[in-house]
Amino acid sequence: MAPSQLSIGSLPNEIIIQVLSSFETRSLLPLAAVCRRFYGLVGRVHYSRLVEASRLQSHQVILECYHPSEKLSTPSLHCDFLGVDGLVEAGDDADLRELNNLYVRFRPYLGDEQPGAIFGEAAGSIMRGPSHDIYLDSDEPFSQLCTITNLVKIGPRRGLFSSIANITDTVIRVKRDWLKSEAAKVAGMQQRASKSVDDTSVLWTNDSTKTVGLRFKVVQDQSVPTPILFGRDEEPSVSYSLEYQELLIRANWLLLSFETAEAQQVTHAGKAVVIASF
Q1: What global pTM score does this model have?
Q2: Which residue in 29, 91, 140, 173 has the most C-beta neighbors within 10 A?
Q3: Is the pLDDT of residue 81 over 80?
């Protein structure tokens, strides 16, 4: 009797999923191109990982955003998890392309704020989140914000990190035209609370990949005097306040950072190593 021919295609889904689960995400996703069956199974494994990563598990996102001249005087911001729009609705049968378009939303806040607090009325006053003041001289078409986001795991003592994974480290250009347009929306009460990643109130660290974005409310400082005389082609000096609304991180990118942080934790297991402090 001729021996039976066995192939990976004859294996049940449960065994293939168990094998796929042993791959890190960077190695797992390319396997979706093997065949239609693998595409679906890789999607199921990837979905479960996104759900797990969104829980953060003692991890926290830290945001540093400052003008290059104000690095030492600008405090870091903690980020309160708000949710992943569309993750539950997608389910474990979600298409990989659909999962790639999911974003995790956070609310940046100063370390002395109460985590989980929301913007609104409190004790008869309006709570206001952290903000940046931006001043542009007449010859400046834009300002800059150095933006660094890290996923950290809280250490055994307050203020210590046992692992840290960089999510992004780049510089955002804050253009005069964008400031003027967004401030006009706020002044005209045209800005609505939005969760869309395509909303113009979001400044992306990379316009092509849209990996990490900051949603701002822009308010012009009307107290800055307009010069009496300036050239026809010159813009007057202006000042704006950029109030943080949300930090948006592509879910896939957060997952990769989560795995990096977990790998660091395994590498340093049993060792008293302080990777960073806050």
Answers
A1: 0.83
A2: 29
A3: yes
pLDDT digits (tens, 9 = 90+) for 137-167: 888 899 999 999 999 887 777 667 778 899 9
SS3 readout for 222-255: CCCCCCCCCCCCCCCCEEEEEEEEEEEEEHHHHH
Q: Count up the domains in the chain and report the number.
A: 1
Task: Count CA within 13 A, CB hemisphere, residue 257.
Answer: 26
Round to whole Å and give the CA distance between 75 and 131. 11
Determine, yes or no, domain membership for 47: no
Ordered alpha helix ranges (H), the chain: 13-20, 25-28, 36-54, 87-90, 96-100, 176-187, 251-267
Whether 145 and 159 have beta carbons less than 8 Å apart is answered as no
Residue 197 belongs to domain spanning: 58-91+100-114+126-277
Residue 201 lies in a domain: yes
